[in-house]
Amino acid sequence: MEKWAAYFSSSTTDEELKEIAESETAIREAMEVEDMFTKDEVTKRAYEKAEKFHRDQAAQISYAHLSERLDNIKNIMKNLQLPAEKAMEALGIPAADFHKYRSQL
Known about the structure:
Blueprint: H1 2-8, H2 14-23, H3 25-39, H4 41-80, H5 84-90, H6 98-102
Helix pairs in contact: 2-3, 3-4, 4-5
């Protein structure tokens, strides 16, 4: 753990980093990846694009899940004539999550 702290510390010299990398494979690999991104703009942009894609994909899945839940809540409210909290409770949505949905019903 101390070696990782030294790796991330701005006060660690290049010489010290080299010594740490020689003794710790994972840190050496991290340094190689870091070097690749800081020296190669094309690789850096490709990595950033891939990360953005993954974040966007996660957001879309989250939104789809939220929309599906809202539709289910609305259907229960309509078909069973239940208030929003009871409909959410019927779907097993924890009371702590009511605020996520209530404003959209």
